[in-house]
Design goal:
The protein is α+β, with helices and mostly antiparallel strands and 244 residues long. Helices cover 22% and strands 32% of the residues. It starts with a strand and ends in a 14-residue tail after the last strand. Residues 182-224 form the CAP-Gly domain. Belongs to the TBCB family.
């Protein structure tokens, strides 16, 4: 299941909750920012029927996992410090061992699950939530369409060899030169490869052994076109004169 978080000055966080075990459905819930991760898992247990004790929660920025909520004592508001975060919740029903005797995983067939009246899916159907709310589905599709159009528009501006600034939440603004524009093997979405002016990147233009461009180590990075602003940005001068 996954949560898409919106952060702000409110004491609450609005989250679209969906359960991957029961289809990609979603409904909006508010969580207090002062909830601990353990308390959040308990609430998700009630909402989804998952197990808080085995639940794993990851933080995603777009399609990239940036962190894991592995500290049950931490406050939820501590993690929701930038817009667009997504919490990916995995209900881990792995086989457990007790006295060396494995306990088999309990599973329902699709037909058996459809017949249950106490399931999340039935609750969503009865209350016309998530994918069972036609208006919400249309709004979500329109939002995805507009974002895809904006990504395409920004990508077209990213000409190889052009100068740019890269702005991402939680990172300093970086300047560099555009070296790649396109897809990455094994990853979804469109990416812009940047050779930064300073060693503020994560690679040398290669990912998983494949070179998309070449630069010095830690001078390269790949980001969404939405993070790139193209313009006449000269290299920043970090030199300090000896004479004051």
């Amino acid at each position: 299941m996954s949560l898409i978080i919106e952060s702000g000055k409110s004491d609450f966080i609005k989250a679209n909750v969906s359960n991957s075990h029961n289809d990609a459905v979603a409904f909006e819930v508010k969580f207090a920012k002062d909830l601990t991760v353990a308390q959040l898992k308990s609430k998700l247990e009630i909402l989804t029927g998952g197990c808080a004790g085995t639940m794993k929660v990851q933080i995603f920025k777009g399609d990239t996992c940036v962190s894991t909520l592995d500290n049950d004592d931490a406050k939820l508001g501590y993690y929701a410090n930038c817009d667009g975060l997504r919490l990916h919740v995995i209900d881990s029903f792995a086989t457990f061992s007790f006295d060396s005797a494995p306990v088999e995983k309990f599973e329902l067939s699709k037909d058996q699950y459809e017949q249950r009246t106490d399931s999340v899916r039935n609750y969503l159907k009865q209350n016309r939530l998530g994918k069972y709310n036609e208006e919400e589905v249309q709004q979500a599709e329109e939002k995805r369409r507009l974002q895809a159009e904006e990504i395409q528009k920004r990508a077209e501006l990213c000409v190889l060899g052009g100068r740019c600034e890269v702005t991402m939440p939680g990172n300093p603004t970086r300047r560099g030169t555009i070296r790649y524009n396109g897809q990455l093997d094994g990853k979804s979405g469109h990416f812009i490869g940047i050779e930064y002016d300073e060693p503020l990147g994560k690679n040398n233009g290669s990912i998983d052994g494949k070179a998309y461009f070449s630069c010095a180590q830690n001078y390269g990075g790949f980001v969404s076109p939405l993070s790139v602003t193209v313009g006449d940005f000269p290299p920043e001068d970090f030199n300090i004169d000896d004479e004051l």
